[in-house]
Amino acid sequence: MHPCWREFVFHASARQTRERERVKLFYQIHCLVEDLSTENIAKLEETIAPFSAFSSIEFLDISNEELEPRHNYYKLDPLIASEIKKLYLKLNAFSQKRFSKMIMCRFFFASLFPQYDKMIMFDVDTLFVNDISESFFIPLETHYFGAVREKDLIAMDRNSTKDLYELRQMHAKSIGVADAFPNLKEAQILFDNYFNAGFLALNLKSWRKENLENQLIGFFLLKNEKLLFND
Questions:
Q1: What torsion do the CA atoms of 176, 228, 198, 159 make, to the nearest 10 degrees?
Q2: Cβ count near 226 (within 10 Å)
Q3: Long-range pairs for 173-182 at CB < 8 Å and ≥24 separation?
Q4: Most buried of 12, 38, 137, 185 (most Cβ within 10 A)?
Q5: Which stretches are annotated as coiled coil (predicted)?
Q6: How confident is the model at residue 155 (pLDDT cuts 50, 70, 90)?
Q7: Distance (Å, rounded) from C-alpha 61 to C-alpha 3?
């Protein structure tokens, strides 16, 4: 990820003018940013202005820079910021060059947004052609999140666990962590559950109930380099 990379989270509440099955919806957008310029903030606010009757945007900055007070621009909780930095420094050199510490925020959504039981997370480069509230209202029940299976494996002719295993082994060697690729059993789990992390419907209520935040962090610390692409 790049220094100005952004990640969005979305929450729909029942008020204002957009409707779903006669229930009025309001779209609250939270933009996770790192050193985002005032010019780009203004551009995003200008973009959403025509839809202000049923939507609004807020910014949560994860950088260490001092911020000028703004009505919709907030600083990350210092304790969470410290944990994100610690986890980021656990990444191998390749991952630290490729990603910003923004990817670590995904561990902490339940803590970052305690006011919500459910939300949608998506990368800033996601393009929507229709209303996304349909994804928000998909019943997740006891599932931690909803996601779409990744099709890149098929596009790369990786049609089996063995193919994926060899691909991960090749990547591990190319980034200097030759002993850190998954074994065949782990590769089977990856192959069966390979999903796109760029758009997720999150069941934060279930995250809190099962203490998923700490489980994810523990898994990351245990596997770390075996994950290779840590986003």
A1: 110
A2: 16
A3: 175/92, 175/94, 175/95, 175/228, 176/92, 176/93, 176/94, 177/92, 177/94, 177/225, 177/228, 180/92, 180/224, 180/225, 180/226, 180/228, 181/226, 181/228, 182/226
A4: 12
A5: none
A6: very low
A7: 12
Q: State mean pLDDT over 119-142.
A: 89
CB-facing half-sphere around the CA of 106: CA atoms within 13 A: 24
Phi then psi for residue 195, to 5 deg, are: -125, 160
Pairing of strands 73-75, 55-61: parallel
Q: How many whole angstroms separate alpha carbon 80 and alpha carbon 70?
A: 21
Distance CA 219, CA 215 (A): 6
**Whole-number Å distance between alpha carbons of 118 and 104:** 19
Which tokens belong to 78?
């210092």
Name every residue whose Cβ is closer than 8 Å to that of residue 36 and which is 6 or more positions away in sequence: 4, 6, 59, 61
SS3 call for 166: helix
Q: If you write DSSP's letter for every residue of 68-106 in order, what string do you get?
A: --BTTEEEPPHHHHHHHHHHHTTS-HHHHHH--GGGGGG
What is the pairing mode between strands 118-123 and 7-20?
Answer: antiparallel
pLDDT tops 70 at residue 196: yes
Name 199's bridge partners.
122
